[in-house]
Write the structure tokens for this entry.
Amino acid sequence: MKQTSSNTTYQDELAGWTPESNDRGSWKIIVTSLLTIIICTWTVLHPRIHVGRKLRRVHKACQFIKQVSAPELETIEATQEFIQARKMMECCAEKTENILELIQSFYIGMMGLRYKVGDNGGYCVMWPLQYAYLLNSGLVSWPPKESWGLSEELIEDKSKADGLLKLVALWQVIWFTINCITRSAHSMELAPLESMTLAYVVQVILTYCLWWKKPKDIATASFVSLPEMNEEQKRQFDSLSMEVTYGVPDPATTEQLMNNAWYIIPRDCTENAYLIAKGGSQYTNLEEARGQEEKELPTETS
């Protein structure tokens, strides 16, 4: 008798596969949860701009895997990108008269600008603070030339944000969340998979808010020619490069590696680099730029 009671209690605590019924079964829980995770994850992806269709596809697949397996890393990357974009807007505020928009700053940060190197079709990535340095040095003009592809209209035209997919994702998130809230309100337990899916939903919403203005699925970068610079200007410009992995100085001897698809781009928002980019070529060293920055700070009055 005691053995039967013990078995019954154990079965009540650990339920196995539950067939579909008037309530819900295991299959319905799995399908709705996985569908919500996949739709939300795929919608939130905003891959950077790679040269070459194969590398772009591999990068997007890698980003999807990272988003599913470690969503918090993608949120951290989105936060870093947002901070970098805002930092660049502040750095260029004077020269652009606060007209540089977040979408343009994001475009440059996602490797949207490549400058030509040599005569064999080589190129390197122009990083955000490098562009800010050229702008604040008076080496490039604002508004930018059309060939630079930095106008809001051109960027929005190249961006492939799918409104229908966003609507489907929004509906799925709302439906799933309301269903979970309703069950909790009636003191009905959620399956562990449902609880995990809710965590994905919260993370996706946060990431999407950070990337709201970031262009999506852009296939082509803008290839530009660098303006003429003296040796000191070129040295400072090169010092603001964050990563050389994505450049192809000579296509005949260098090729992009598929491993690049996995890399997380460093977001250099250090104060030293920011001061150099903001000061432009009017300062020959970091000490001069820092001194000018201190002069511009408001002084306390007694």
In short: The chain has 13 helices and three strands.
